[in-house]
Amino acid sequence: MSALTDRLRLTRRRVIPAVAAAVVLAAAAVWAVRPAPESWTTEDLRLAGEGGVELDARFYLPADRDGKVPAILLAHGFGGSKDSVRDEAESLAEQGYAVLAYTARGFGRSTGQIHLDSPDHEVKDAQRLLDWLATRSEVTTDSAGDPRVAAVGGSYGGALALLLAGQDQRVDAIVPSITWNDLGRSLVPGGVFKKAWAGYFFGSGSADLSALAALTGGGGGPEREGPAPDVDPACGRFAEDVCKAYLQMATTGIPDETTLALLSRSSPASVLSKIKAPTLLVQGAVDSLFPLSEADANAKGIAAAGTPVKVAWFTGGHDGGEGPANDSDRVEFLTLQWLDHYLKGEGDTPSDDFTWSRVAGFSATSRDLATNGYSAEAYPGIAGTGTTDVAVTGPAQPIANPPNGNPGAISSMPGLTSRLSSLLSGGVAIDVPGQHANFSSAPLTGAIDVAGSPTVRLRVASPTGEAVVFVKLYDVDPNGAATLSAGLVAPVRLTGLPADVTQAQPVTVTLPAIVRQIEAGHTIRITVATTDQAFLSPATPAVYTVAVESALTLPTLAGTPIGDPGNLWWLALAGVVGVILLGLLLLLVIRRIRHRRRDVTVIEEHADTPLVVKGLRKAYSDGFVAVQEISFTVQRGQVVGLLGPNGAGKTTTLRVLMGLTQPTAGEIFVFGHRLVPGAPILSRVGALVEGPGFLPHLSGYENLKAYWQATGRPWADARFEEALEIAGLGDSVHRKTRKYSHGMRQRLAIAQAMLGLPELLVLDEPTDGLDPPQIAEMRRVLQRYATDGRAVLVSSHLLAEVEQTCTHAVVVNKGRIVASGPVDDIVGDSPSVQLDVSDVPAATRILEELGVRSVKPEGPSGLIVDMNGTPRSELVASLVGAGIGVDRLVPRRRLEDAFLSLVGDNSRGSGDR
Amino acid sequence: MSSLEAAAGYKPSRTLPIWAEVKRQASRRRTQLALGFMVVLPLIVLGAFEFGNTGGGDDDGDGGGAFSSIADLATSGGLNFALFCLAVSAGFLLVVVVALFFGDTVASEASWGSLRYLLAIPVPRARLLGVKLTVAGLYSLLALFTLVGTGLLIGTLRYGWGPLGSSIAAELPPAEGLLRLLGIVAYLAATLLVVAGLAFLLSVLTDAALGAVGGAVMLCILSNILNEIEALGDLRKLLPTYYNDAWRGLLSTPIQTDELAQGTISAIVYATIFWGLAFYRFTRKDITS
């Protein structure tokens, strides 16, 4: 055994395995989270924008680029900065793009004021950045001053990408996500001001003020037009015209000409026809700020100009966040596919297919909804590829508009990115009694996969001739729990209304586009409400009457599920189980083959010998050698005593003999069969090793029964009654063994060893704990047992016991055999005696005359006499005859002195047996 | 006679019959207590709900209740009551019970000294482990089903047989609900394989039954604690207890199955590793107890 193995075993013995496992776990964790070498380099810059504005920027370059690389201009969302797009920038840099992430003017550490993606300000800033990119030697250029570049961004950054592509033909591709087409329509849909979202963003533009004051407190450059300490607190970092437009709109709820003009300049709608850069539009279905219809309008406008455009929807948005993992993965994949093709020229032209996702259930680990992806061959718009009409009924109902819209119904929580589950299957939406009218369908007979904008026809009467109503579509489950999908509502401002609903002309209301499966058994409810906390509704109280025309049209869309990951995992599970079963099968086959090939030869010369031990050696892993070399034989009819002091190696020998311990060297044959751990030949051996071992909760009788059941052998073979008789426990045999005395357990253990009357009985210190009469009885039992060709091997550290019980003895010390042979030979009378006499010199003289071999004095009155055949009686007679008093005569035995000295030397501290 | 390879009637594959091991374990007080507690727990839970209800009136019956938590729904019917009993036990009680059955089985034989006599019969070591494993598994399943069965029985007797209300989706009709409940039981059984594997490995490595059971429970708690540390990110997916809550996916409509599959894969892989190590070690080690 090598030193290394030694050490390994040592460790294994000493360290608690759990600790080892924890260390391995920790090591794995450290390895996994170790800082990976970054595959990009960054450079923090302050770049010149339009009109002296300084833009805070960071330029990412792939570390292992090979020559020039295409660039990506990465713009952030409203209220963000170059840092809020850091993850995206890093992942794009990893994909081999030079990424310029920058903070738009009016935000973060950039100077300037917020002009809402104005073509004269923010868009021109971006153009300056394109100029700068063209000067970088690392960036691929199409021609001088024209970098190979894509504009990527979400929301505020997305609109910038669209506006930039419309204004600057150097842009080679754009990926705008969750952004607007017409800012006016987004903020004032249906003529109703979306006050919650607008206020939220206006607030975030102003709130930046204090942070900026701290930032520039050290003294800004003279050319910074950014906020001076005397900045208007009402406008924060907003440009004056933007601020005015907001104040006007928020005050009246209806944008005036100037405001509309400003919003229109900030809207991609006006430049779509000029966009030549292939466009990937990503829009979220859980977005009450820029709903799916905005992306739809962008897609139609860009496609009309003949520019390649592709649309993807995901379950997320300004309300729903980035969506579940499989959605963000899909969006990332589509983005890279788009950029790789249009910037790097790698990969096929992305197809026109359209992908979206729908709620698939609840993910317990993310504690939110999970979605499934679907794909269709082409983008269907928000009208679906088909329609289903559902009849909704209900009488015309009066609904009250409360003063100042308070209390107001709740549909969504702008600015708080909520859990998808509360938006798509929860009960966020609340309607105020008296302020809404319901029109319900019958329970659906089949599920409807809605994807797009449902339409409904509405008749409204108002005493003032005007009305603002909010139309919503609820999915109501059979228990009556209603969900307003994604919290989306359609606000409608109607004018020229009659006072009587019967005279009202129906108007078609297009509801916001949703993606939802409405299950069979659910009902659809159209709710018309007068208020919504997210919108500014008229301040004057009024009572309207509303009615809904029967038919509700739902756009439907059928798609192919995108490789359902759930199914893949089940396949993987099947694979794992299959591999494990296969491995198990392989192991079994190998075991079977090994079993067949194992050494079953019977050593003929030992075939009738119960036990042959040859050259046995056992060294423990800590270096302790318990057994040096032991060889002995047990023949039929013999009771062999394994005699030795504690620690001589007796128990280790027996342990090897029972297959509990692997020997280091040597071999053991039982009836000629080689004995290895678990060898079937052990079934012909009965054993008591290292004390009894019983199930404490069972009685002695039950223990024996349980033991015999574990052998799986026929009940009749057990010879139960004989064993019980040997145990001699009487009625105590039915008491639980945990209440037994040591001696009772010992006797029960011997009985257990004798169950089935095995041909070889191995007993380790069998008389341990027995009282003298029981010891005497046990001797008789063992001697009787060794008849009929059976054999017994007994270990003991007591010479007397071996002498009285055994026919043969094997004396071991320090792992080696000291003597062996018939007990009579070993421990029988030796030719010498010890004499205590009254007169030592006289006795010596007389004894020498008798012709003995030797006389040695021992002590003051003792003599050791080698008799040389002289009978002891003659010796005593001669001494007494000569008038010498004989106090004591003790026959000496051959091994006695030697053995007693062994025990005396070694009974202490000899270590593990 | 003397050249026979084994005693008459001895066959390695017949040693330590499953039924014998079942009986060995059945007579143990800890087996009886563990199984008994599976019956008692739903009764205690029922008592707690009843105690809590004596003061005020029955506040069931509002339509929005379908979206409240599992606890709020526990008294809405037998299925929900059984589900609640499962949910409160899944995190700790079942872990302890399974760790007990698997961790105690070999280590206690070693500490009694009876292990060496079983091996000297000889029961082949692999067979001994196989039987021990099977029987511990049977008892664990029995405990699980006793818990659910009792919960279902007394929940139905007290609160009636109704649809399974879910905190995530709409109510499920009773037949469907029962299937889902069985699915949850099956998934919990799968996740408990990790505990079973760990406890069994420790049981083989140590002679102290308490060490094996306690060690397995402690490592599970450690895994749960690490799982709470979000900074570990995706690394947590490697934790054996990461997917323990995925059974909730069975309550949503439609069923969210991919995490169930991932959790099952994780549990099976861990259990295979632990059990494999247990067999590897036990078939080679010197029995010193």
TrEMBL record, chain A:
Keyword Membrane: yes
Alphabetical list of PROSITE patterns matching this protein: ABC_TRANSPORTER_1 (PS00211), ABC_TRANSPORTER_2 (PS50893), TAT (PS51318)
InterPro entries membership: AAA+_ATPase, AB_hydrolase_fold, ABC_transporter-like_ATP-bd, ABC_transporter-like_CS, Galactose-bd-like_sf, P-loop_NTPase, TAT_signal, Xaa-Pro-like_dom
Single GO MF descriptor: dipeptidyl-peptidase activity
Domain of life, per lineage: Bacteria
One of the Pfam families matching this protein, by short name: Peptidase_S15
Family classification: Belongs to the ABC transporter superfamily.
Protein name: ABC transporter ATP-binding protein
Source organism of the structure: Actinoplanes utahensis
UniProtKB/TrEMBL annotation, chain B:
Positions of transmembrane segments: 33-52, 81-102, 135-161, 181-201, 208-226, 260-280
Organism: Actinoplanes utahensis
GO CC field: plasma membrane
GO MF terms held by the record: ABC-type transporter activity
Top-level division of the source organism's lineage: Bacteria
PANTHER family: INTEGRAL MEMBRANE PROTEIN-RELATED (PTHR37305), MEMBRANE PROTEIN (PTHR37305:SF1)
UniProt protein name: ABC transporter permease
Pfam families (UniProt xref): ABC2_membrane_2
